[in-house]
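Consider the following assembly input.
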Amino acid sequence: MENEEMKPNYWPSVIQAAIIVAVVTTVVGLGLVYYVAGSEPSMGVMMISGLTIPITCLIGLIGGILATRSYAKAFDITFPIGTGAQIGLFTGIIAAVVGGIIGQIWNLVDPTLMERFADTMIGAFEMNDQIPESQKDEIITSMEESFEDQSSMGGVLKGIAINAGVLGFVNLLSGMIGAKIFASEEE
Amino acid sequence: MNLGLEFQNRALYAIVFVGSFFLVIIALGPGLFGNPSLPYVSFQFEAFHFLCHQDPLRSFALNNSQMAVCARCIGIYSAFFTGVILMPFLVLIKKVKFRYYFRFLIGTIILNFIDVLGNQFEFWTNTNESRFLLGSLFGLSSAILLSNEFFKKTKYRGLIWKMKK
């Protein structure tokens, strides 16, 4: 095993893992948006369990594991969990940014997708008779404002920043776990 | 007071502790702040849309508002945070070798997979409570896997006890 003080460059592993996470999560997310946008408005549309396979949960988490594993195997090294945390953090942040960029590119390919999605969601909510009319109007207005806000440049950047924070942190955790599993000295 | 514990990687532990706390707060969703809201329109839902399917049928509600993550995920995050709090106590109670923690982690992952597949192929129907429980096991096992990296049992405690004797 090489000495960890040599510290080979971990960025190729980070970028590779970030792209995998970004592509997989964005494709799954877009699939879901298409499904909702192409459906008739009903509360059933919002209950999407038929489409969303439960294991899609946590795909975003594996970036840190993938990156630390790739880094440790590529250079046959051991490193502390602090380095794993760093690798995971960068992987999550880059995955969020790349995912945001893919989403924006897809908006150019299909510019009406998010509009159709918002219409279906609002339509489904309007049909819900369990909520009093007075509250419904208020919530629908706030939904319309939120959808508008999310499609503006500021909203997109805000979304990327929020995702970068959360994905960055959860991948920091998975990066530590990855470092512990793939790159720690035998105890 | 010497508890017989050596605390290492302190900055990283602080980041993990504070970060996990906020992760749970965000995952609890807008209902925590008494804010009824629907998926896709609050920052809490946006924060987790890469990480969770956020299916209303598979999520708990807080103050009549769906949580930002499903039952399994809220189990994972809350148990992970609990595990981070419990780390020093776990190390104090008993030193466990990494390979046993690792087996526990793999076991909980397999359990979750079996649960998901069994439900998917209709061998059984899982509930939000069972998803929460299995998710919690995974979250807890992930946290305790790291416990020896932050806390180490020192020999001083035993020595002092022996000297007093």
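The radius of gyration of chain B is 19 Å. Ask yourself how this observation constrains the way the partners meet.
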